[in-house]
């Protein structure tokens, strides 16, 4: 069995500086749907195995736009669910700064400012489109995981780009809104 596979259905977390973490994930199209059952099982099992609240497919070497979320931990209904081809429709102007960590950057954290609400469209494994407005920790987690789909890591939200522990919230290096990082822009 290859070293980058823990079992047939669980993969290890890729760690920085693995270049796959910087690659933009591919949209799942008609051809990719043929193997969706395999990829979704591997992503959900890996999320459970690593006790993650959320896990983006690129974090385990799957180059597609898929996220597994533990919806119960996020205070929502149901357990592990897949979000496929997520599209952020809008984000709120209200923001909050909180310390975030990442399985791909272990034992490190950064203070990151993010919108407090977002409206998301996504597909489920049955190819149906859904949409919902998320707030609080769920919105933050989704933005974090979607960043992974776009090759964005937590340190990218900090002005000095340093891979260092989070500064205090009032420190001038604390991340601020950056439209280059969030191309979908503002919408109230």
Name of the CATH architecture:
Alpha-Beta Complex
The CA-CA distance between the termini, in Å, is 50 Å
Beta-strand segment tally:
7
Order of helices and strands: HHEEEEEEEH
Spatial order of strands in the largest sheet: 1-2-3-6-7
Question: What is the alpha-carbon Rg in Å?
Answer: 16 Å
Q: How would you name the CATH homologous superfamily?
A: Peptide deformylase
What is the residue-mean pLDDT, rounded to a whole number? 82
Uncertain regions spanning at least 5 consecutive residues: 160-188
Explain what this protein looks like in three dimensions:
The protein is α+β, with helices and mostly antiparallel strands and 188 residues long. The protein has a single domain, classed as Peptide deformylase (Peptide Deformylase, Alpha-Beta Complex), CATH 3.90.45. It contains three helices and seven strands; from the N terminus they run ααβββββββα. Strand 4 and strand 5 form a beta hairpin.
């Amino acid at each position: 069995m290859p070293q980058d596979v823990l079992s047939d259905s669980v993969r290890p977390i890729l760690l920085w500086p693995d270049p796959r973490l910087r690659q933009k994930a591919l949209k799942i199209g008609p051809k990719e749907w043929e193997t969706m059952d395999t990829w979704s099982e591997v992503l959900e099992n890996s999320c459970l195995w690593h006790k993650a609240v959320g896990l983006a497919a690129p974090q385990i070497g799957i180059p597609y736009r898929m996220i597994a979320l533990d919806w119960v931990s996020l205070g929502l209904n149901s357990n592990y669910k897949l979000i496929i081809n997520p599209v952020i429709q809008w984000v709120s102007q209200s923001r909050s700064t909180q310390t975030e960590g990442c399985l791909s950057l272990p034992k490190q954290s950064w203070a990151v400012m993010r919108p407090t609400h977002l409206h998301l469209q996504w597909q489920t494994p049955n190819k149906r489109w859904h949409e919902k407005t998320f707030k609080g920790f769920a919105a933050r987690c989704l933005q974090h995981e979607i960043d992974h789909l776009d090759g964005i890591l937590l340190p990218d939200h900090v002005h000095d780009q340093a891979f260092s522990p989070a500064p205090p919230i009032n420190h001038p290096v604390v991340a601020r809104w950056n439209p280059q990082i969030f191309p979908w822009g503002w919408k109230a």
